[in-house]
Design goal:
heterodimer, A: alpha+beta, Heat Shock Protein 90, 5 strands, B: alpha/beta, Globin-like, Transcription Regulator spoIIAA, 2 domains, 10 helices, about 10% strand, phosphoprotein (chain B), STAS domain-containing protein (chain B), STAS_dom (chain B)
Chain lengths: ~130, ~280
């Protein structure tokens, strides 16, 4: 179902803006509600910035998905960075190693319907999120 | 295939002998490709200058566009692409202006009845010289456009962060677009300076025009509010639309005791009520 997937390399702040625009366009195309569009765009913004800041850059792929019953958007964020040593701690509200609010990762998880994270120390992090139309 | 000295000299002579026919044929072709967006007289002037540039480069036995003898030609081409880029012509339209020279030369060769094998060889070499010139034009076109974009981005940064006086003692910052670190810095500086300049005790930050509020944007806003407070000003955040409110809740961002309002009007009313209470 990744036939129309679009990939963006994330290496600078500008790319985070591009990811956001790409996600918004895709979300409008599958007719997500305005609230869900905003939630997904915000989650994408958080995770893309994490890819950039903590993962040292990587790529983001945005693709429409169709379960047969409903449509949605799936976004993959991948980096080859240091990985996350303690996932539970990283997913705790307010925990940060970078001077932010510490809500990016945990908040993004609450903004999407499906959240999957694969990480290993020294091997990078891949996060896959999905938002379905209601 | 580069031009050798003999070929260059032969073409320099050809360009000199047939200059009027060449310029006129070249100008006609360029005029057609630009569909009348530049006047014929203007193009005639440009092509005749370029013809002289090419002729002088070849007379100085330039074998390629990067030779020292072609320095003046390069300057002319850079100028041409810069003016085309500023006037909003596409890269193709700009490059075609140079490519059309080849057709004009070919037409001149045809009409003078020179169509033997030597002329063909000469023409191919000359043609690759013009191709290089066109590529050079293309490169400078792209460079000029990039400079234009960089300039505009800078201007946008300046433009998009006004601080307006809304009422006696109330200033407002209407934020529009993406709030990245660079812009947040500009906004904060402007706001704090305006607070000092106007002696305003209230500042309203309006985020109606911000498409998405993520943790970075929220953090920038919070920092600005804290900085304004340190200077003795109260900040109100307005323009929080329903979808933004739900996103902020889901993210878990807390605005603490900072007053937030749905619209700028509500925020102003709130401020006026506050000042009324204090019986200023």
């Amino acid at each position: 179902m990744n036939d129309q997937g679009e990939r963006v390399e994330v290496t600078s702040d500008r790319d985070v803006v591009r990811v956001r625009q790409l996600v918004r366009t895709a979300a409008v195309a599958v007719k997500l509600s305005l609230v869900d569009q905003t939630k997904l765009v915000t989650a994408a913004s958080e995770l893309a910035r994490n890819t950039l800041v903590y993962g040292g850059g990587g790529w983001v792929e945005v693709a429409p998905v169709d379960s047969g019953r409903r449509k949605g958007i799936r976004i993959v964020f991948a980096d080859q960075g240091p990985g996350i040593a303690d996932l539970d701690l990283a997913l705790t509200d307010g925990y940060t190693t970078g001077g932010g609010l510490g809500l990016g990762l945990s908040g993004a998880r609450r903004l999407v319907d499906e959240f999957d994270i694969a990480t290993a120390v020294g091997e990078g992090t891949t996060i896959t999120v999905t938002k379905w139309c209601r | 295939m580069t031009l050798n000295a003999d070929e260059a000299a032969r073409f320099a002579a050809l360009l000199e002998e047939n200059q009027d026919a060449l310029v006129s044929a070249w100008t006609d072709r360029v005029t057609t490709s630009l569909r009348g967006r530049l006047s014929h007289a203007e193009l005639q002037r440009q092509t005749s200058e370029l013809r002289r540039g090419f002729q002088q480069a070849l007379a100085g036995t330039a074998q390629g566009i990067s030779d020292a003898a072609a320095a003046e030609l390069r300057a002319q081409l850079s100028e041409l692409s810069a003016s085309r880029a500023r006037q909003g012509f596409s890269a193709t339209e700009t490059a075609v202006s140079v490519f059309a020279f080849k057709e004009a030369v070919l037409a001149t060769l045809d009409s003078s009845g020179r169509n033997d094998a030597t002329t063909l060889r000469d023409y191919v070499a000359f043609s690759s010289f013009v191709d290089d010139a066109a590529l050079f034009t293309f490169d400078s076109y792209v460079r000029v456009r990039e400079e234009l974009i960089a300039d505009q981005a800078e201007q946008l940064l300046e433009l998009s962060t006004p601080v307006v006086k809304l009422w006696e003692g109330v200033v407002a910052v209407p934020l529009v677009g993406t709030l990245d670190s660079a812009r947040a810095q500009v906004v904060m500086e402007r706001l704090l300076q305006t607070l000092v300049d106007t002696g305003s005790p209230y500042a309203i930050i309006d985020i109606t025009g911000v498409p998405a509020v993520d943790t970075q944007v929220a953090q920038h806003i919070l920092k600005t509010v804290v900085a304004a407070r340190l200077m003795g000003a109260d900040c109100i955040i307005s323009g929080i639309r329903p979808q933004i409110a739900q996103t902020i809740v889901a993210l878990g961002i807390e605005f603490g005791d900072i007053a937030t309002k749905a619209s700028l009007a509500d925020a102003l009313r709130y401020v006026l009520a506050q000042t009324g209470k204090k019986g200023r």
